[in-house]
Amino acid sequence: MDKRSRIYVAGHRGMVGSAMVRRLHEAGFNNLLLRSSEELDLTRQADVEAFFENEKPEHVVVAAARVGGILANTTYRAEFICTNLQIETNMIHAAWQAGVKSLLFFSSSCVYPRLCPQPMKEEHLWSGPLEPTNEPYAVAKLAGMSMCQAYNEQYGMRFISVIPTNLYGPNDNYDPQQSHLMAALIQKFHLAKLARSAQVVLWGTGAPRRELLYVDDAADAAVFVLQHSTGKDPINIGLGRDWTVREIAEVVKQIVGFKGEIVFDASKPDGAPQKLLDVARLNGLGWKARTSLEDGIAKAYDWYLRSPQAAKPTS
Fold first, then answer.
1. Which one from 8, 112, 137, 301 is the annotated catalytic residue?
2. What percent helix, strand, coil does the chain show, rounded to 5?
3. What is the CATH number of domain 7-168+213-237?
4. What is the Cβ-side half-sphere exposure of residue 199, based on CA atoms within 13 angstroms?
5. Which among 26, 81, 159, 232 is least surrounded, fewest beta carbons within 10 Å?
6. What is the pLDDT of residues 226-271, one digit of tens each?
7. CB neighbours of 87 closer than 8 A, spacing ≥ 6?
8. 137 an active-site residue?
């Protein structure tokens, strides 16, 4: 990509989109097109097509999505499939109409089968049933990936799907009804520390294994893929290693400074037993993650403490 290229980053206020903006600026790409959801409703096809016709972006990053953790995915199943299908359908089709040079679509590791062989290779896509708790969201993301491949095959486009592992970091969502694993853990332990609670109760057994990647590393990988990948097949973005939820919780507890006990409520769902990505394809291009779990959590907690979302002491 030329440093003068007009790059549209959809979802630039979210965790992934804001990390993409930071990384693109760091790499010298300063001609970015940014629109808030109030300025451009991506669920409205006519508005999206008018934006592409008027602004003529050369490259597009689709980081806009309705996202959430296990509670949100099980509660708002209709909204998760409908809104995400609308966004990606409008974006991908409008990008083709406008003749963009490349498009990067952010998918999710939940697109892999629930009982997928570990680590999960790109070749395992579509090979089995999905995790029921987030199936509507996963179906929407699979549809977006399929759209990218279809436009590549039929029209010769360069629409690339990247499949990031579980992400965390600046601009994460700490709403208890919407948060993912890391944000939920940071919030819970922080509140428990402020309240001097004797324990923190977490959902599930603590046995499921999760891979976690600091969001700025994910953005770095995505920009790297845009610049260096010559293929059009989906690419996993991750660390290539995982931890149990219990192990992750212990690290968060230590960094936050909570002194109490961790209790797991086994009556609540665990979700998929393991979600570890095979990152051989990405590593083969020459990219590897740089932020350790401990450093990433420390950075995420520091951002949380300085954000409006952070709970403050009552006295």
1. 137
2. 45, 15, 40
3. 3.40.50.720
4. 7
5. 26
6. 999 888 899 999 999 999 999 999 999 999 999 999 999 999 988 7
7. 10, 42, 43, 62, 64, 65, 66
8. yes
